[in-house]
Design brief:
The protein is α+β, with helices and mostly antiparallel strands and 109 residues long. The chain has a single domain (3-94), classed as Winged helix-like DNA-binding domain superfamily/Winged helix DNA-binding domain (Arc Repressor Mutant, subunit A), CATH 1.10.10. Helix content is 54%, strand content 14%. The chain is built from six helices and three strands, in the order H-H-E-H-H-E-E-H-H. Strands 1-3-2 form a three-stranded antiparallel β-sheet. A hairpin with a 2-residue loop joins strand 2 and strand 3 (61-66). It is globular.
């Protein structure tokens, strides 16, 4: 859906993953979508240079998250929210993998 707005499908995947998880590193996105790390990292750096994302170093990993100080972040998140809410539950389970075990009895999403 956002592919036409952001220029390519990888950009859409990157932003949706950050919207879903809050913060994430390039290799996690590439593993979830079974794509190379290079295009994912290129998109993350592109959004960081634009001011929409910021990153921090945690050990050897570079973790990206939305830049709360950027005036472009709120409109971007609002747009992502619309797309995210229109993704089916099956697609969400397919693309957004569990990072840790689910608490017993907790609803799926």
């Amino acid at each position: 859906m956002l592919e036409n707005i952001f220029g390519n499908e990888t950009a859409e995947k990157v932003l949706l993953h950050i919207y879903h998880y809050g913060e994430i590193h390039a290799s996690a996105i590439s593993l979830d979508y079974n794509i190379s790390v290079t295009p994912v990292l290129n998109q993350l750096v592109r959004f960081e240079n634009a001011g929409v994302l910021v990153s921090k170093q945690i050990g050897r990993s570079r973790v990206f998250m939305f830049n709360k100080k950027s005036p472009f972040t709120k409109p971007t998140i609002a747009l992502l929210k619309i797309v995210y809410e229109n993704i089916s539950l099956d697609e969400k389970q397919q693309f957004f993998k569990r990072r840790r075990p689910r608490k017993k009895g907790k609803p799926v999403l």
